[in-house]
Amino acid sequence: MDKKRKYQFQVSAQHIDFQKKVSLSSLFHLILKTAGKDADHNGFGLLKLQSDDYTWVLSRFVMDMERFPLENENITIETWIQDVGAMFTTRNFRIANGEDRIIGHASSSWAVIDMGTRQSVLLDTLASLSDFILPETTPIGAPTRIANVKGDIANRFEVKYSHIDVNCHASSPFYIQWIADCFSLDFYRMYKLKRFEI
């Protein structure tokens, strides 16, 4: 049984920013797509869960990149389940370029909720989930709780129809996009994004 799998993608025009690099929200979306494909392959994907009136929800996410891939670049995203607790599971990712050189890592924490009650579900409900544990960490560690921050509101966004996902809340890639949009183009010209956590 393969506990770790690789998924290949090409960075296309709809994925890039004004510097012809994959945007933060697009890379995040590809990572989520990887998680979904792998969960489907392992038998506990979204469609399977929804048939039991359950759904996956992303709780925390951290990503650390050496560099962001460019337009038309081929990348491989490798994923595995590091651990399964009572309420949360950790899924890790390794991002490599076309030459199989590692250019980044990510780690995520997921929960399952009952779609009717909106309450958390114990993960031992998914009997096969623990069969895929590979207790291998990444150099960036697992995502942790982010402390409250003080400051001024940088921007406001109104959630609309196109932001809502199957769980009837704003889809997580939009949160990433809204955060990224709080900074100017000059900011992105001057600074390189290295680490992102939500």
Protein architecture, described:
The structure is a single chain. It is built from 4 helices and 7 strands; from the N terminus they run βααβββββααβ. The protein is α+β, with helices and mostly antiparallel strands. It has one domain: Thiol Ester Dehydrase, Chain A, CATH 3.10.129. Strands 1, 2, 3, 4, 5, 6 and 7 form a 7-stranded antiparallel β-sheet that branches. Helix 1 runs antiparallel to helix 3. The relative contact order is 0.20.
Which terms summarize this structure?
198 residues, alpha+beta, Thiol Ester Dehydrase, Chain A, seven-stranded antiparallel beta sheet, 7 strands
Entry summary:
The protein has one domain: Thiol Ester Dehydrase, Chain A. It has four helices and seven strands, in the order E-H-H-E-E-E-E-E-H-H-E. Helix 1 (24-42) packs antiparallel against helix 3 (172-180).
